[in-house]
Design brief:
Elements (H helix, E strand, L loop, with lengths): L1 E4 L15 E12 L2 E7 L15 E8 L2 E8 L10 E6 L6 H8 L5 E8 L10 E7 L3 H14 L4 E7 L8 H10 L4 E7 H4 L4 H8 L7 E7 L1 H13 L7 E5 L10 H5 L3 E6 L2 E6 L6 H7 L17 E6 L2 E3 L7 H5 L2 E3 L3 E3 L3 E6 L1
Parallel strand pairs: 8-9, 8-11, 9-10, 11-12, 13-19
Antiparallel strand pairs: 1-2, 2-3, 2-7, 3-6, 4-5, 4-7, 13-14, 15-17, 15-19, 16-18
Helix pairs in contact: 5-6
This protein binds flavin-adenine dinucleotide.
GO molecular function, one term: oxidoreductase activity
InterPro entries: 2Fe-2S_ferredoxin-like_sf, 2Fe-2S_ferredoxin-type, 2Fe2S_fd_BS, Beta-grasp_dom_sf, Cbr1-like_FAD-bd_dom, FAD-bd_FR_type, Flavoprot_Pyr_Nucl_cyt_Rdtase, FNR_nucleotide-bd
Protein name: Ferredoxin
Length: 353
Amino acid sequence: MEASTTTPHQSTGVADAHGFTPLRVKAVVRETTDAVSLVLDVPEASRDRFSYRAGQFVTVRVTIGGVEHRRCYSMSSAPAVESDLRITVKRDRDGLVSNWINDTMTVGHDLHTSPPEGRFVLTETDRDIVTFAGGSGITPVFSLVHSTLAATTRRARLFYANRSRDSVIFRDALADLTGTHRGRFEVHHHLDDQDGVVSPQRIADFIADGSHPHTDYYVCGPTPFMDTVERVLRDAGVPKANLHLERFTVAAVPPPNPAETAVTEEVTITLGRQTITVPYRAGNTLLQTARLAGLKAPSSCETGSCGTCMAQVTTGSARMNNNDALDDDEVDEGWVVTCQALPTSPKVEVVYE
Ligand SMILES: Cc1cc2nc3c(=O)[nH]c(=O)nc-3n(C[C@H](O)[C@H](O)[C@H](O)COP(=O)(O)OP(=O)(O)OC[C@H]3O[C@@H](n4cnc5c(N)ncnc54)[C@H](O)[C@@H]3O)c2cc1C
C-alpha cells in the first residue's frame, strides 16, 4: 500500500445548487494495482452535512470530456474511529469513472461530492454480524466491521471473495483487526484462482454454526456473488429484517413502454409548501417532471440506489425501473424513488417527505 499526502488548503466547502460540495483530495492510497483510496478533506463548515454512518456512501460528480457523470462510492473509513472521510474505488474493467479516478486523481484535486446516504448500516441491536464481500464490495463492509469492533461488543465474521491474492483490498488492515480483536473477529479469504468460484455450499458451510435470529447479515459484491449468498441465507431461514444487501450495479432496465406512460395526463407534486400540477410529458420520470415544473426536487445517485429522491404516490400509480433503496413495505405504502418512477395512471399525485 503506497500513500501520498500533503496539507492542501481547504476548499471553500460551499454546496452548489444540486447539493454537491467540492471536497479536496488530501491523500491518495494505492491499495492494489486496480484500487485506490481517496481521503477527502471535509471543511469545518460542512462537517455536519458530511457526518455519516458506517456502510453509507456518497455520490461524486465528475466531468470527463465535457460530459458530467455521477457515481456512488461507499466510505471505507469507519466514523467511530477516524475523522477522515475515505472512499475506495476499484477499476471496473471497461468502466469510465472508476478508471478515470484511478488514473487521474492526485492530492489537491477537488471532487464534487454530495452528502452521505444509504441504509446499509448497522442495526441498533446487539446482534453479531456476519458479512460477505466480493471485490470492491469490501468498501462498506470494511467500514461496518471496523465500526462494529471499535464501538460495540458485537462479534463480526467476514467471508471475503476475490479473484486472486493480488486483488485483495485491505488485506493488511483486516489482518490487524483479527489480531487486535482476537476471539471477536474472524476473516475467511476465498480466492477464485485457488478455490474456484464461490459456490452455495461454501456459503452454507460458512454460516453452518450461525444463530440466524441473533445475527445480522451484510452482503455486498458483484451480482452473481450476491445472488448466491442471498439465496443460501434465505434458504437457511435468515429473517428478512436481518438480511442487508448493498448492490453496486443497477439491474438492466427495459426501455419504457410508450403506451404505458401515454395514459398519464397530469402530475401533481407537493414539495415543502409548494403544490404544483403540470401536464405530463410521456417517458419522463417523476423526478424529471418535478424539475420541469420548476421544483428543486432532491436527488443524488439517480440510479435508484440511494433513496434521496423518494416520495409517496398518494393518488394513482407509478412503476419503478430500478429500486435498490426502498423495502417492500415502503413500496406497498406507495413510496417510490422518483428518479426511476414512471407514472402509469391518468392522474398521479406525489408528495415529497
Ligand atoms: C450504493 C453504491 C455504492 C458503491 N460503492 C462503491 C465503492 O465503494 N467502490 C467502488 O469501486 N464502486 C462502488 N460502486 C460502484 C460505482 O458507483 C460505479 O458503478 C463503478 O465504479 C463503475 O463505474 P464506471 O463509471 O467505472 O463504469 P461504467 O462506465 O458505468 O460501466 C460499468 C460497466 O458497464 C459496462 N457498460 C457501460 N456502458 C455500457 C453500455 N452502453 N452497454 C453495455 N455495457 C456497458 C462497462 O463495460 C462496465 O463493465 C457503488 C455503487 C453503488 C450504487
